[in-house]
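If you are new to this repository, start here. Below is one unmodified record pulled from the training split, so you can see the exact layout before writing a loader.
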Amino acid sequence: MTGPAPLHTDTEGVDGGVGLTALLVAAARAIETHRHDSLAQDPYAEHFVRAAPACADWPVRAEQAPGGDDNPLWGRFARYFGLRTRVLDDFVLRSAGTGARQVVLLGAGLDTRAFRLDLPSGCVVFELDRAGVLAFKQRVLTGLSAAPKARRVPVPVDLRGDWGSALTAAGFDPAAPSVWLAEGLLFYLPGPVETHLVDTVDGLTTGGSALAFEAKLEKDLHAYRGSPIYTATREQIGIDLLRLFHTGPRPDSRGDLTARGWSASLHTPFEFTRRYGRGPLPEPNDALEGNRWVFAHKPSP
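And here is the target side for that same chain:
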């Protein structure tokens, strides 16, 4: 197994690079929140968008986007993020309902589940991300006098480093069941770092724990460079996602978990569009075609 890279001390915030994608997701959640048929409510999302100079003119409602829902970025792609938010909300709530009292958000970004979800009494939410991202998030939430519904523990770390030690030092108990999310994270990491991350999750979890993560199956991500979603994201807000995604070989993390005794299911986002009745469906030259959502459970002894 390849170990972690040395711990980086940079405090990159949300004003560039991968950090800027946290604001993209926040804008999408804001748009979803204001839809009449919303799948997920995040009243904090638009405040993050408005607090960052880099995206001060981004829409936070579908009608503010050119073309509205026909806009590939603020229509279809934003709806994808809204669907993903709802599916993972439900995953966390189900896992908490069956005994997990620790929620770990890997690459938490501007996630507000500690504030939004009605988690059972005694739940604690650990938010792992770079210090700069967490600091921006805290400034906005403090300005709103926002109060979490569960105990919230920010853990400033670089996930390329020894984040497991930082998590346990922050109070995480490996002997108690936990639920983990890696939402929109793994394809930004080099393959060996993803492998180390999954190894660390396995080593820090006991039976009754669960993990959800997003993966991409394409062997050549650039095959969809001209897709409407990637093109609109580049042209409208200057984020070239394909330059941010790591293009090296991807590990089979689902297979690795299965080999360690986890049960793991693989799904397309379109399955949940049909289940919930809202969200993207397949289309030609579709950048979402290779996206997969994995839900894994570690059985109790």
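Two things worth knowing about this chain: Confidence is low (pLDDT under 50) at residues 1-11. Residues 72-97 form the longest helix (26 residues).
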